[in-house]
Amino acid sequence: MSLYGHEDAWREWNAALAGPRMHHGWILAGARGLGKASFAMQAASELVAEPGIPQPPGSHPDILVLSHLPATKEDEKKRDEGKPFQLKRNIAVEQIRAVQQRLYTRPTLGSRRAIIIDPADDLEKGAANALLKSLEEPPQGTYFLLVAHRPGRLLPTIRSRCRILRFARLSDAQMDAALREQAPEASASARSAAIRASAGSPGAALEFLALDLAPVYELLDQIAQAGDPGFVLRGKLADAIGARPDRARQAAMLELARAITANRMRDTPVRAIPLLCDTNAELANLAAQFPVANFDPGLLVQETGGLLARLAATRDAAHG
User: Fold this and answer.
1) What is the pLDDT of residues 74-103, one digit of tens each?
2) What is the C-alpha to C-alpha distance for residues 102 and 159, in angstroms, rounded to an integer?
3) Measured between alpha carbons, how far is 170 from 261 in angstroms, rounded to an integer?
4) Same domain as 129, residue 30
5) Whole-angstrom Cα distance, residue 8 to residue 29?
6) Which residue of 93, 140, 250, 309 is 20 to 30 Å from 61, comparing CA positions?
7) Is the bond leading into 202 cis (omega within 30 degrees of zero)?
8) Which of 138, 166, 194 is the C-terminal boundary of a domain?
9) Which residues fall within 8 angstroms of residue 131, CB to CB, at 6 or more apart?
10) Distance linking the first and last C-alpha atoms of the chain
11) In this structure, is residue 150 part of a structural domain?
């Protein structure tokens, strides 16, 4: 996928790469779905490449990527068979320590090695502390690229030892170009809905299309616009989500609810801002609990819809 909207990030990275002293730690910060992981892979490939040394066409021995592992042995088997599988919720300390063992040896092909952690804000506590030791005393020629959707969740000591490279959300025109390239089968109306719902994140927009979230988004928006005193819309929302939705679909619903709340901030009178902020904070708390909690899908729909229904009062305030 083309990396739309990353011109500033590339300029900053390339300037650092051409400088006399490349910083050893980088945080790639921005919303989920902006292409930070793809940027990290391309940037790491440039970092480890050296004149006169042939580079492998596929995976590179000097680019190490840490991410979520399969949740269970059965999920490992499903992965190996090319079937859908569940991931662990965090990146474990054992993964960091395994990489640190590699750092005692020299890079395989050249003089540089890149460590990509995606996403670094999902490091468990022990893993974050172990990573900090490597950031404090980085081996020569080793560089860390930490993909972070919520950099505030990283340890302050990790943030202080890294240079932050920020990724902005894309414009509607950039989003449309990305969707035309990656989802050419999507209709104009589907692209428009995906752009409205994804708040400048092409990854979120593609997930929106893949999961067929348009009906879910329209119902969430109706609840936020008109409320749901008779629970009719929440019943329709439960049907749209499905009786046994997977975690990806439930998580997407929460992200759509947060996007609706954020969009409402732009045209809401000042007196309604506190309610919007409270609603956004409660949705954020719900989204933060979701990866580690076992919510009943029906109750999650009711809770999410109930929070959005409060926003109807902000609409009344805007027109009252």
Assistant:
1) 999 999 999 888 889 899 999 999 999 999
2) 23
3) 19
4) yes
5) 13
6) 93
7) no
8) 166
9) 96, 117, 120, 123, 144, 158
10) 46
11) yes
Lowest-confidence segment of 127-131, 188-192, 305-309 by average pLDDT: 188-192
Tell me how far apart the alpha carbons of residues 206 and 170 are, in angstroms, rounded to a whole number: 14
Residue 317 has pLDDT above 50, yes or no: no
Two tokens, residue 217? 């988004």
CB atoms near residue 77 (< 10 Å): 12
Q: Is residue 264 located within the same domain as residue 139?
A: no
Burial of 231 (C-beta count, 10 Å sphere; 0-12/13-18/19+): middle
In the prediction, which pLDDT does 314 show? 63
Per-residue buried b or exposed e for 151-170, using 16+ beta carbons within 10 Å of the residue's own CB: beebbeebbebbeebebebb
Contacts of 147 (CB under 8 A, 6+ apart): 28, 36, 37, 40, 116, 117, 118, 119, 120
Q: What is the span of the domain harbouring residue 245?
A: 211-319
pLDDT in tens, 14-46: 999 999 899 999 999 998 899 999 999 999 999
Instruction: With beta carbons less than 8 A apart as the criterion, state whether 279 and 308 touch.
Output: yes
| pLDDT higher than threshold 90 for residue 132 | yes
CB-based burial label for 195 (10 Å; 0-12, 13-18, 19+): buried
Q: Which of 302, 293, 308, 306 is nearest to 256 (CA)?
A: 308
In a domain, 174, yes or no: no
Q: What is the pTM of this model?
A: 0.81
The residues, any chain, with a CB within 8 Å of residue 98's CB and separated by 6 or more, are none
Residue 173 lies in a domain: no
Residue 121 placed within a domain? yes
